[in-house]
Amino acid sequence: MAKKRVHLTFTGKLAEEPILWQLSQTFDLVFNIRQADFTEGIGWIMAEIEGDPQPLENGITWLEDHGVHVAPIEQDVVS
């Protein structure tokens, strides 16, 4: 199993959609939300996403293709 720590930013209508649930169901991934915030039309989540390496990469690409800004978290800021 591979694991990635990511900072996801959602804007507009995406902030109201269950995008992480869709990600987990489509790519058989597990996510752990470590921090999150939502304000008028924008939201962000710091999460750990875990799964088999190829589905994990495909899932990250899928998020980006759906308009989610995905940035890796290099430091262990979500512990």
How would you describe this structure in keywords?
79 residues, 2 helices, four-stranded antiparallel sheet, globular, Alpha-Beta Plaits, alpha+beta
What is the gist of this entry?
By secondary structure, this protein is of the alpha+beta class. It has helices at residues 19-27, 53-65, and strands at residues 2-11, 30-39, 42-51, 69-72.
- What percent of residues are in strands? 35-45%
- Unreliable runs: none
What's the CATH superfamily, by name? ACT domain
Please write the CATH class name.
Alpha Beta
What composes the largest sheet?
4 strands, antiparallel
Helical percentage? 25-40%
In order across it, which strands form the biggest sheet?
2-3-1-4
Order of helices and strands: EHEEHE
- What CATH calls the topology is Alpha-Beta Plaits
Overall mean pLDDT stands at 91
Q: What would you call the quaternary organization?
A: single chain
Strand element count: 4
Roughly how many Å is the radius of gyration?
A: 12 Å
Q: What best-fitting shape do the alpha-carbon axes yield?
A: globular
